[in-house]
Design goal:
537 residues; Chitobiase, domain 2; TIM Barrel; eight-stranded parallel sheet; 15% strand
Length: 537
């Protein structure tokens, strides 16, 4: 609103008071019929974001997004795409045009690519009266900077209808780079199947918190979820059911490519998993020859584990593995392919070692790096392989020592301790979803640990990052995913992104509480943990 100097007007005090009263009555009437009240014209402090930035230095006047604001980018296709993503978030709620341009000028929002101390994912955000500039060396850094800018705006910016504003961004500078290169979330689409649209919704939520790896658990006893041309019954028969006996489903190759494309547009890499030699009943039921006795078992819709195994001595097993990995690797531009390896209770130790010795080179042959659950360290992990540790605080010392020894010998670690960051664990005894075999995991427990010194005997340098798995025995739709992931997922993201020096529950729970109105604006159905001081309105 323009401000007028009173000396240019001769309005009497009485008329001024009258006009003011009329305006107040009109405003009250507007809100009485359902119009949204204006957003408080107070900028959110620079450091009140999740994950916590490496540094946030407040200073200077805030910038306000207005109808005159534009988004300027370098003449780069990826930078323009990030700018378009930002504009798509801001336009519905602000009602502003927010044109994206490569033309010169000053002010507004600028996304700038330039070499500097940012790495592949870091960024710098500068805000002041004239505008906001996000600078990064790579487009991924610009994208992560946009997530920070998003959280510096009022939560109403997330709504899909025009809101009254204003839209201030606090003045100052944020400098930010991730602690770990691997910051993941796993979605089990095997126990229950999730559509492409549901996976995309979860991808959008992960991207808000700078998660950069989406691990898809594509096969298990209860369902095979990816089409394999050379073994078509895997999907059409093995994917025809799910836990509880529902109709299941599978991704065509076009479906999977669309998930990969969409994840890449949010700077997430898809990590596909084919679990083996155990957790394989869906495959064994689809092809009798994969069983040692040549007899196909029935499809399985329960939740027990450890009863199935590929036939390790048979050559057809390795023909099968080669075909599946070849086709899946061709669909996956990312670096990794996960081969499972957990809970192979029906496979002898000798057979397990022999199987992993033959399968890991197949992954390398098709240009991918092996990831396996930490039981892989009971065999001989391939050079460069990553072991995903899912043990508990009370996992045996022998098993932990085995993983730590592999880490000292060069195997990288992804930390997913089940009693900390398995998102399918119940929050409390009364949680209507989830399981409790690893214990009850409230929000503080999921956040309050340090990946750098979690596993005794493993060097901190071996830790590549963290990943929050969500197993879906009890999870059937997006609302279930959201209830179990939020508010725990942002804490896992912070463990992976933020410097250890920023870690602290008291400060974190206040920043986490500020996310609640944002999730409500986005329609995210989250668990309102009593450990978090959520806003009252």
């Amino acid at each position: 609103m323009r401000r007028h100097n009173g000396r240019h007007h001769s309005t009497t005090p009485r008329i001024t008071r009258l006009l003011g009263s009329l305006l107040l009555v009109a405003a009250a009437g507007a809100f009485a019929v359902g119009a949204a009240p204006p957003v408080q014209d107070t900028a959110i402090p620079l450091g009140r974001v999740v994950p916590a930035p490496a540094s946030a230095e407040p200073g200077g006047a805030p910038y306000r997004i207005t109808h005159d604001t534009g988004i300027r980018v370098d003449d780069s296709r990826e930078a323009r795409q990030v700018a378009g993503y930002l504009a798509d978030i801001l336009r519905p709620s602000t009602g502003y045009r927010l044109p994206v341009t490569t033309h010169g000028g000053t002010g507004g929002i600028r996304l700038r690519l330039a070499e500097g101390p940012y790495g592949t994912e870091g960024y710098r955000l500068d805000s002041g009266h004239q505008g906001v500039t996000i600078t990064a060396a790579r487009p991924a850094g610009l994208f992560h900077g946009v997530q920070t800018l998003r959280q510096l705006l009022p939560a109403a910016v997330e709504k899909k209808s025009v809101q009254p504003g204003p839209w201030p961004v606090a003045g100052g500078t944020v400098r930010d780079t991730p602690r770990y290169p691997y910051r993941g979330a796993m979605l089990d689409v095997s126990r229950h199947f999730f559509t492409v649209a549901q996976v995309k919704r979860y991808i959008d939520q992960l991207a808000m918190y700078k998660i950069n790896e989406l691990h898809l658990h594509l096969s298990d006893d209860q369902g095979w979820r990816i089409a394999i041309d050379s073994w078509p019954r895997l999907a059409t028969y093995g994917g025809s059911t799910q836990v509880g006996g529902g109709t299941g489903g599978h991704y065509t190759k076009a479906d999977y490519r669309e998930i990969v494309r969409y994840a890449a547009s949010r700077y997430l890499e898809v990590v596909p998993e084919i679990d083996m030699p155990g957790h394989t009943d869906a495959a064994l039921a689809s092809y009798a020859e994969l069983n040692c006795d040549g007899v196909a078992p029935p499809l399985y819709t329960g939740t027990d584990v450890g009863f199935s195994s590929l036939c390790v001595p048979k050559q057809v097993t390795y023909d099968f593995v080669d075909d599946v990995i070849r086709e899946l690797a061709a669909l996956t531009p990312g670096r990794y392919l996960h081969i499972g390896g957990d809970e192979a209770h029906s496979t002898s130790h000798a057979d397990y070692v022999a199987f992993m010795d033959r399968v890991q080179p197949v992954v390398a042959k098709y240009g991918k790096t092996v990831i396996g659950w930490h039981q892989l360290t009971g065999a001989t992990p391939a050079k460069g392989a990553l072991a995903q540790y899912w043990g508990l605080d009370d996992t045996s010392a022998e098993e932990k020592a085995q993983v730590a020894k592999a880490a000292r010998n060069g195997t990288g670690l992804i930390l997913s301790p089940a009693d900390r960051i398995y998102l399918d664990m119940k929050y409390t005894e009364d949680t209507p979803l989830g399981q409790d075999w690893a214990g009850l995991v409230e929000v503080r427990r999921s956040y309050d640990w340090d990946p750098g010194d979690y596993l005794a005997g493993a060097p901190a340098s071996a830790v590549r990052g963290v990943e929050a798995p969500l197993w879906t025995e009890t999870i059937t739709d997006s609302a279930d995913i959201e209830y179990m992931a939020f508010p725990r997922l942002p804490g896992v993201a912070e463990l992976g992104w933020s410097p250890a020096a920023t870690h602290g529950w008291d400060a974190y729970k206040a920043r986490l509480a500020a996310q609640g109105p944002r999730w409500e604006a986005l329609g995210i159905k989250y668990y309102k943990s009593p450990q978090v001081p959520w806003p009252t309105s």
